[in-house]
């Protein structure tokens, strides 16, 4: 039997969270579910998320509870804003730091002016090849399952849109870039493509998602703040 104080969560809440570094999206969903059930003494509640973030990324995730899980597909279509740190001069198989760096590529020729020009060339609609180290399905399995076994598989390119790209700070080897893009965009793939476009190598060193549509990271709960909020609700 449900606790009366859990009813708002069962009826449906749309919650914003700041995903911690190294956590999977499932880890966060599972933790939120456990926190709600534990605080209000209920056995189960539906909880889901509207868009995956890689374990090495931080930032905004939309978590839906109860009947609000029906809205998840609507949120998945929204544009996302990211602040990324790009590392020039090397690559990795996963295009981020999930795997070891490999190779050394020239960076002496990369200037701020050249980078700004190349970034402008990425604006607009285009086809992007997702990374094999991703949650895309191939033959009924997640692509990363093949990648981690060293099995080469072909992924189909997807249509994406970069609406805004801004150079936040320029440096070698690391540069910060802000991106506003459509759903389905892999910033790791952008890092790979950026390195190629610059005649160098590049991988994604850090990533933070700062907005999803009109939802902003500054409005999001940390797990600590959510725990305090649950305790306050229980006392009402």
Quick recap of the structure?
This protein is of the alpha+beta class.
Characterise the protein shown here.
The structure is a single chain. This protein is α+β, with helices and mostly antiparallel strands. It folds into two domains: 4-77 and 216-235, 2-Layer Sandwich (Pseudouridine synthase), CATH 3.30.2350.10; 80-212, Pseudouridine synthase (2-Layer Sandwich). The protein has seven helices and eleven strands. The protein has helices at residues 7-12, 25-40, 72-76, 112-120, 143-147, 187-197, 223-235, and strands at 13-19, 47-49, 57-65, 80-88, 124-128, 137-138, 141-142, 158-169, 174-181, 202-212, 215-216. Strands 1, 2, 3, 4, 5, 8, 9, 10 and 11 form a nine-stranded mixed β-sheet that branches. A hairpin with a 2-residue loop joins strand 6 (137-138) and strand 7. The longest helix is centred in the first third of the chain and has 16 residues, at 25-40. The protein starts with 6 loop residues before the first helix and ends with a helix. The model has no long low-confidence stretch (mean pLDDT 91).
